[in-house]
Amino acid sequence: MDYIEPVGGNVKVSVEKLPSSEAVLEVDVTWDEMEKASDKAYRKLVQKVDVQGFRRGKAPRAMLERKLGREYIYQEGLDDLITEAYRNTLKEHDLTPITQPKLDAPIFEMGQPYHFSLTVPIITPVELPDYKSMHFDREEVDVTSEEVDKEIESLRTRVAEWNVVERPAAIGDRVTVDLKLTSGDQQISDLKDNPFELTDERNGLFTGMDEHIVGMQAGESKNFSTTIPADYSNEKLAGKEANYAVTLHKVEEKQLPELDDAFAEKVSDGQCATVEDLSKVLSDNILENKKRRVREELREKVVSSIIEQSTFNLHPLLIDEEIEDMMHQFSHMLEQQRLSMDQYLMMTRKTAEEYREELRPEAENRVKRQLVLEEVARQENVTVDPEEIEALFNFYAQAGQALPRSDEQIRALALSYRREKTLTRLVELTTDPDPEAVSEEEEAEEAVVENAQVAAQEGAAAAEEAKEDVGAATPREENGQAAQTVE
Q: Which residues form the PPIase FKBP-type domain (predicted)?
């Protein structure tokens, strides 16, 4: 559809929004308007250019034209006119550009009207469903005695002692071994005096190892083979045969502490005097974690349902930009683990383009999520006040994650906070009232910080996984000895 409006004076602009999520601006300028633009350009240039015989800013136009050229001044005026027409049109038609426009501007002729066009990728607003008519039920949560008992057993295991035993190794024991792992001609690991807690639920590179060590005694050596899982992250090793040479030095048995009041006081750092007190604290913690999980799952269910029922017209550049943002964030997390993106790609045997394509589905979903939340925020008039941003900076600082107060950081924080407030509003609109709900601001604050912590943990985990891959695939020499691959 075309919109034709005067932008100012004798400048007319027609705007056509294309199905490709682009806008084409066709601009017609009369020669009178070109003359006015050249006058403005002269007044601007004469303040910057020195003309012999005149103080700066006082040279007549004819003298400035003699120095710079008449066409130069007209071109300068035309450039300013193009910029002004573009900015005014974006504002008047509420267009949000994704990147710089493509300009089609032929050479102008003196005394003649002028026409130019601009093609710009834009964000096309999402068409939302009637989200206010949606309804979602809140999940009820409780805590069972079995869950509390399981948490207590986990605490007992955490503070358990290990005692050396003179018997064959069994599941649940801790063994100390020398272990060489190869696949074909490639050495994967060369571990010395490495401890393993034997389990029948091991995943990753050493899958299948434990069952062969069970039954071994101190001083015994054994060779055996397993198959590395087909879904192992290092594709070069996935599905390959793994050959082990193991020498067992020590078998230790786990000794759990007695479940008494002394144990309760120890594991709670003196906060609980009895096992009953400890059980109550654990029960409360489990309940709070469940409530937090249920709240987050409900928020995701609401926004995912709206995304599924919304209509999008996404320009590919939006997704490409999101991919670049994701790669930049991940690269920063890798740097914290002393890895570069190039090293990570080398470890995972991927090119940068292959990694980008892997990110594309998630990037597209992120863009859709952002567009939905922005449109809901606009319709619901969700805003963020400077006082809220200040409180959020303080919240981060108290959580030990102080942020730099740059303009970029403030904008990013405000955008994230607005989206979290919008999510909270959506839940309020589509569910029954939550009798235990915290304030909208508190919930949004917690969500912003928690999201940052989760992202950091995920990035660190991915970086650690990459380190394990390179340790397994390309052993390094350190101090004359092969580097150990530690599980």
A: 168-248
For 477, the token pair is 């020499």
The Cα 93–Cα 80 span in angstroms is 20
CA max distance for the chain: 105
Q: Is residue 131 part of a domain?
A: no
User: What's the pLDDT tens digit per position in 403-460?
Assistant: 888 988 999 899 999 999 999 999 999 998 876 665 555 555 565 555 544 444 444 4
pLDDT-based confidence at residue 168 (cuts at 50, 70, 90): very high
- The CA distance from 347 to 355, in Å, is 12
Burial of 252 (0-12, 13-18, 19+ CB in 10 A): middle
Q: Are residues 325 and 471 in the same domain?
A: yes
When the pLDDT of each residue in the chain is averaged and rounded to a whole number, the result is 87
446 lies in some domain: yes
DSSP H/E element including 207: none
**Region 380-407: what's the mean pLDDT?**
89
Number of alpha carbons in the 13 Å side-chain half-sphere of residue 54: 16
Of 60, 93, 121, which residue sits at a domain end?
121
In a shared domain, residues 166 and 220:
yes
pLDDT for 307 equals 96
Same domain for 195 and 51, yes or no, is: no
pLDDT above 60 (res 113): yes
HSE, side-chain direction, 13 A CA sphere, residue 154:
8
pLDDT score, position 1? 45
Contact 46, 57 (CB under 8 A): yes
Residue 199 placed within a domain: yes
Same structural domain for residues 110 and 168?
A: no
CATH number for the domain harbouring residue 53 = 3.30.70.1050
Stated pTM of the model: 0.71
Residues 6+ apart with CB under 8 A from 422: 373, 376, 377, 380, 382
328 and 434 both lie in a single domain: yes
Supply the DSSP string of 129-186, one letter for each residue.
--GGG---PPPP----HHHHHHHHHHHHHHT-EEEE-SS---TT-EEEEEEEEEETTE
Looking at the structure of the chain, the number of domains it has is 3
Phi, psi of 438 (to 5 degrees): -85, 175
How many other CB atoms sit within 10 Å of the CB of residue 393? 17
Query: What pLDDT score was predicted for residue 456?
Result: 46
Amino acid at 265: E
Q: Give the confidence band of 235 by pLDDT, cuts at 50, 70, 90.
A: confident
Count of CB atoms situated within 10 Å of the CB of 463: 21
**Domain extent at residue 26:** 2-121
Structure-block tokens of residue 163: 């005692």
